[in-house]
Design goal:
- The chain is α+β, with helices and mostly antiparallel strands.
- It contains 11 helices and 29 strands.
- It has a 26-stranded antiparallel barrel, surrounded by 4 helices. A 3-stranded antiparallel beta sheet has the order 1-2-3.
- A hairpin with a 5-residue loop joins strand 20 and strand 21.
- The radius of gyration is 45 Å and the shape is elongated.
- The N terminus is likely disordered.
């Protein structure tokens, strides 16, 4: 028997080929391999085979294939959460958030006192406390923006006392791009290790597969034995039958050693037989060892298949990392966790004060206190909104703004609707296709509230006469015909169920939408872009029935038909022209005695003369015609809004300076009169590198509306400030105002900002008001009692 070499025991290393610790081991068996050197076959060859004390590899190829790809299943929800968040049994989610959360921003608290310009309270002076903040939060790579404003002043116009938590989808996409770029090099390194491991396995397989089979070994040894079945050689000659000349012996050799020769032959034959038996035993052992080699080859082949899968998976990861559109489109990316892939599909998530705008006839142009969510991937869209619409009376202390508001309500120039806020709404919209791509979405809205909030601020309950329900359904379709041609088709149907009409109708529900009442709405829009001429043309038509009503739409009037054409033309690299023509009409079903027609023409020109100087001009006339059914009465009004803006930023080395000039002209007509407003503003801001800052402005305002403050006001303001290197800032200034009633009036101002301790600063301002500060309708006698406005606040910034 050939001698057995010393056992060479070694453990196969586990090659982890993973992404996010999810690729399985190359050799998960952990078998011990024993090598033997076989004499007579190859010098120095060591044949591996499984030892008898090695555990049997019971894992199937299907299980190993699962190990190669990322694991998506878990036996227990807790273990899955722990694994995804990178926690262990002794680490809580809150501790993980504490370690990974990053915040920045500022919060402040302060007090204002004096002539508050944005209050509806006519009793002056007054004071109020306020708190506001703007915070950026990033927890586990999920970025959010948190903003809030609260004050104890209840008679304030506009939105107040609100908070908003918004998911920053763009920031999150940037974070995922950074994660992808950081993993590219890691995947390249893993791919290099995979190639090396594959090369080693291929070399081992080639070496093992080059061993001859037992039949080849049998033929290659030689033909020398006939009785073993392994070695076939010419038979040994029998004694006494040798040829006469085969052996030349001395004449006395037979007589002297005949018996000895016979014994020698017998010994030779026995020796040959013994060697043949040894070779036969060796051949049997080799066949056994060869079977073991085949098992090792099979195992190596499985490992090689696993590596091939791992290489293909690593290449797929690298390809997904190189495609930025995959992140923007919300496609599932294999190198991100389930949570990260889910938030890639979130395009908008607001909690608190929301401005949803995901639908034409469901939710649009309304401020909501609630939640707003939009999600989409490459082939599906989902939107959900729920909350309460805000009640905001259209009023300000600025007479120009008030006249604009009155004009909006009277002529629907800005699609302004009656106040219908304070109602609860819930909207759901979903369907195949992306929002900006070819899609077919279906939506429904449910609203509940009072019929008239301005005149019924304290409703008694759902059984009162002032409550109603609102149902709206919408079918939204878009066809992207080509890259430059898009067609939008939107249809809506609504129902209003008033408790004052019938209790049965009030409880009818969403089926009321299918009633034959004229409560339809439709919009068709075609957008075309001509690349050669750099022209964009938009054709829009919209029909809204007299009885269509949606609680979620704040700036759309019913009983209205509109068609519009808009063109945007880039004339040169520095000149852009935008024009539009709009025609609209009410009284579609002739329910009323009069019909109003509005024709709006708009032209806006933007010219960038050079990198320092730009000009914008706008001209927007509005023609109104009111005609009765019998043509017994007609009214023609001409409205006009025009403006001119000049911006000059000279390129200077030692300081920066900006010049702005604005001219606005408003000609607004109603049934009683025509009001004219003009304003001119010229300002300059110059900032020196040393820290000094100079601000100059001059404003002239003219109004045809006569009030106690006069209608021609000139205001001149000069301010000088200095910014210190450690963040402090001070400024002082003077004001002078003149008009036809009050003559000249003078005022002053002062502002400061001082860092107190680390992260904390104190900011304040004080000014004496003059007539030009607010060309408003505040009682002049009230203002003269205390013509000052001051504020003080503490800010924490980090």
């Amino acid at each position: 028997m050939p001698e057995q070499d010393k056992l060479d025991v070694r453990n196969q290393k586990k090659d982890s080929i993973s992404n996010n610790n999810s690729i399985a081991e190359v050799d998960s068996t952990g078998k011990k391999l024993i090598t033997k050197e076989i004499k007579g076959f190859r010098k120095g060859f060591k044949m591996p085979f499984a030892s008898s004390n090695t555990k049997k590899d019971t894992s199937s190829s299907k299980d190993k294939a699962k190990n190669v790809l990322p694991k998506t299943d878990s036996l227990h929800l807790k273990s899955t959460l722990v694994k995804k968040l990178g926690l262990n049994d002794t680490t809580s989610i809150f501790k993980k958030l504490e370690k990974t959360a990053k915040t920045s921003g500022n919060v402040s608290a302060g007090y204002d006192y004096g002539v508050v310009p944005f209050t509806t309270n006519t009793t002056l002076p007054l004071g109020f406390y306020k708190a506001e903040g703007n915070i950026k939060v990033e927890a586990m790579k999920l970025p959010f923006d948190v903003t809030f404003y609260y004050s104890d002043l209840n008679t304030i116009s506009g939105l107040h006392n609100y908070f908003r938590v918004s998911f920053d989808s763009k920031k999150f996409q940037d974070n995922m791009r950074q994660k992808a770029s950081g993993q590219v090099e890691e995947q390249k390194g893993k791919l290099g290790n995979l190639y090396k491991e594959r090369q080693d396995l291929e070399r081992k397989l080639y070496y093992l597969k080059s061993m001859p089979e037992p039949s080849d070994y049998e033929q290659g040894i030689g033909k020398s034995f006939d009785y073993t079945g392994m070695m076939k050689t010419p038979a040994m000659p029998k004694v006494g039958t040798l040829p006469k000349d085969s052996v030349k012996l001395p004449k006395d050799s037979l007589s002297s050693s005949g018996k000895g020769s016979t014994d020698s032959l017998a010994r030779s034959e026995a020796k040959l037989k013994h060697e043949a038996d040894s070779i036969a035993a060796f051949q049997k052992e080799y066949e056994h060892k060869y079977d073991s080699i085949q098992k090792v080859i099979t195992k190596y082949q499985k490992q090689l298949d696993q590596i091939e899968w791992a290489i293909m998976y690593a290449k797929k990861l690298m390809h997904s990392m190189d495609d930025p559109n995959q992140i923007v489109s919300g496609q599932t990316t294999p190198y991100l966790s389930k949570t990260e892939n889910l938030f890639l599909k979130v395009k908008k998530l607001d909690i608190g004060l929301c401005y949803p705008n995901n639908s034409t006839f469901l939710i649009s142009g309304s401020a909501i206190k609630g939640v707003n969510l939009e999600m989409e991937n490459e082939n599906f869209f989902f939107a959900f909104t729920s909350g309460k619409t805000l009640s905001n009376l259209i009023y300000s202390t600025n007479p120009l703004q008030n006249n604009l508001n009155n004009t909006q309500n009277l002529y629907n120039f800005f699609d302004f609707n009656n106040v219908n806020s304070g109602r609860r709404v819930t909207s759901v919209k979903f369907g195949p296709g992306r929002k900006e791509g070819t899609h077919l979405h279906v939506g429904i809205l449910y609203g509940y509230g009072s019929t008239s909030y301005p005149f019924d601020l304290n409703p008694t309950g759902p059984t009162g006469l002032q409550y109603e329900k609102n149902y709206v359904v919408e079918l939204d379709g878009k066809i992207v015909v080509t890259k430059n041609n898009v067609l939008d088709l939107v249809y809506g149907k609504s129902a209003i169920l008033q408790s004052s009409v019938s209790t049965g109708d009030f409880q009818k529900g969403v089926s009321a939408i299918f009633d034959p009442l004229r409560s339809n709405a439709a919009l068709v829009r075609f957008t075309s872009t001509i690349p050669k001429t750099k022209t964009k043309v938009t054709l829009t038509t919209r029909w809204v029935d007299p009885f269509f009503k949606s609680y979620g739409v704040g700036f759309m009037r019913d009983d209205n038909f509109r068609y519009e054409i808009k063109a945007e033309q880039t004339l040169t690299s520095k000149i852009k022209l935008t024009t539009f023509f709009r025609k609209e009409q009410d009284n579609l079903l002739s329910y009323y005695n009069y019909t109003t027609n509005l024709t709006t023409i708009g032209a806006n020109l933007s010219v960038k003369i050079n990198r320092n100087f730009s000009v914008r001009v706008g001209y927007n006339p509005v023609l109104q015609t009111v005609v009765t059914k019998d043509n017994s009465y007609s009214l023609n009004n001409h409205n006009n809004i025009s403006n001119l803006v000049l911006i000059f930023n000279p390129h200077l080395k030692k300081f920066s300076s900006t010049f702005n000039a604005l001219y606005s002209y408003y000609n607004l007509s109603n049934v009683l009169q025509t009001n004219e407003f003009q304003s001119v503003n010229v300002s300059n801001t110059t900032q020196f590198k040393s820290g000094f800052r100079f601000i100059s402005s001059a404003t002239w305002f003219h109004s045809s509306v006569i009030d106690t403050n006069g209608n021609n006001t000139l205001l001149i303001v000069e301010e000088v400030g200095y910014s210190f290197k450690k963040g402090a800032m001070v400024s002082i200034g003077g004001k002078a105002a003149h008009n036809t009633v009050i003559d000249w009036e003078y005022g002053y101002m002062a502002k400061f900002l001082f860092p107190v301790i680390k992260h904390f600063s104190l900011e304040g301002s004080f000014e004496k008001l003059v007539i030009g500060d607010f060309y408003n309708s505040l009682n002049r006698a009230q203002v003269e009692k205390f013509p000052y406005y001051c504020s003080l606040k503490v800010t924490y910034k980090w």
